[in-house]
Specification:
single chain, alpha+beta, Glutaredoxin, four-stranded mixed beta sheet, globular
């Protein structure tokens, strides 16, 4: 089963909102805190091509940031993506 990974920083309100939305959906996720961890920040940037948090992955699928996650949810695409993990 592919894991959900969220790259975050503790003080990021969009990270908090993304994690809350995933929890609301009942989705367990791994959180990678990049604050103060240059190696993890570089890993996130290489993997996503982006410099901002959160960066959300469902398995190998890059969802993007919080706005992308919210848009996917409002378009009805989040449920099938989460269901495909099982």
């Amino acid at each position: 089963m592919p894991a959900i990974t969220v790259y975050t920083k503790p003080t990021c309100p969009y990270c908090l909102a993304a994690k809350a939305l995933l929890r609301k959906k009942g989705a367990a996720f791994s959180e990678i805190d990049i604050e103060g961890d240059r190696a993890k920040a570089l890993e996130m940037m290489e993997r996503s091509g982006r410099r901002t948090v959160p960066q959300i992955y469902v398995g190998d699928t890059h969802v993007g940031g919080y706005d992308d996650l919210r848009a996917l949810e409002s378009q009805g695409g989040l449920e099938p993506l989460l269901a495909a993990r099982v």
